[in-house]
Design a protein that fits this description.
- It contains two helices and 26 strands.
- The protein is 8% helix and 51% strand.
- Strands 17, 18, 19, 20, 22, 23, 24 and 26 form an eight-stranded antiparallel sheet that branches.
- The chain has three domains: 70 residues, Immunoglobulin-like, CATH 2.60.40; 74 residues; 111 residues, Sandwich (Immunoglobulin-like), CATH 2.60.40.
- The termini are far apart.
- With 293 residues, the chain is mainly beta.
- A hairpin with a 4-residue loop joins strand 19 and strand 20.
Length: 293
């Protein structure tokens, strides 16, 4: 009988076990590279600025805008959050995009608080500009369009065209030059006008008042009513006719308005007036030229 050495059985078993150990050895961990850039150049930075991450691991990136810029969005990944966290599953190229900021100065030299309102699709918000204050608004728009209130009391810099401003411009609000005439004298008045020494002529009153002399309505102002007109600076008398048509009168004192003044003149029963010396001879013709205002 042939006797076999135990080694003949041990050696093959060892080989099997060794091979099995080789098969179940875990694979090496896969890594991915993330490259980071900014646009435009020198508009900001990103932390971290790139690197290598294990497959499936989380990476957080934070964009920091340079002076005069604001973060806009990420390219290469989904999402506009800043900072943003992603799961790295493959090589990536990420770009942080920044938008340039443009400055606009709003200055209020008027005596009224002004509400400044952006038109639609603007990147800045409505704000209140108190009188004698200046506010700088930053926007990614290189031109802005705006509205404001109160339009009837305030105007803005003449150089601003169509309520638009370009980057770096200063929008200054000023008082409109206004004359308000009120009638509190107890009688209806016709043909109220303020004529300056420079021959500028402004009419006041939006009422049609019956004139017995003409037998038709004439433009004027009923008792208790008022009217405001934007005027040029100047000095002059305010003249008028009573509805009973007793001749033309004017204020005894000259009314003077400077640029930016907003003057209120009220006719009371005690207001000093005087007849106008150059009353038209043909009073009917004089009134006809103003009828229907």
């Amino acid at each position: 009988m042939v006797r076999r050495s135990p080694l003949l059985f041990v050696l093959p078993l060892s080989c099997v076990l060794f091979s099995a150990c080789q098969l179940i050895e875990p694979p090496l961990q896969q890594t991915h590279t993330v490259s980071v850039s900014v646009s435009p150049l020198a508009s900001g930075s990103v932390v971290p600025s790139g690197g290598t991450w294990d497959d499936g691991s989380a990476a957080t990136f934070t964009a920091f805008p340079a002076n005069g810029y604001v973060f806009d969005r990420w390219d290469g990944i989904i999402g506009s959050e800043n900072p943003v966290t992603i799961v790295v599953e493959w090589d990536l190229e990420i770009t942080a995009r920044f938008a340039r900021l443009y400055a606009y100065r709003f200055k209020n030299d008027s005596s009224h608080s002004v509400t400044v309102i952006p038109w639609q699709y603007q990147t800045w918000e409505q704000f209140e500009l108190e009188r004698f204050r200046t506010i700088t608004v930053e926007s990614t728009d290189d031109e802005i369009s705006f509205d404001y209130e109160p339009v009837d009391l305030v105007k803005f810099t003449d150089s601003i065209v169509d309520w638009n401003a370009t980057a770096g411009e200063t929008i200054t609000f000023h008082n409109r030059t206004l004359l308000t005439v009120s009638n509190r004298c107890g009688s209806d008045l016709l043909l109220i006008e303020w004529e300056t020494e420079a021959d500028s002529l402004y009419f006041f009153g939006n009422d049609d008042i019956w004139c017995a002399t003409l037998g038709e309505p004439v433009g004027g102002m009923r008792d208790g009513h008022s009217d405001t007109e934007e005027v040029s600076p100047g000095s002059g008398y305010i003249s008028f006719w009573f509805a009973e048509y007793t001749g033309q009168y004017r204020t005894s004192d000259v009314v003077t308005i400077e640029e930016g003044d907003q003057i209120y003149f009220t006719f009371y029963g005690s207001t000093y007036i005087e007849p106008v010396s150059n009353v038209a001879v043909d009073a009917r013709a004089s009134l006809s030229s103003y009828s229907g205002r």
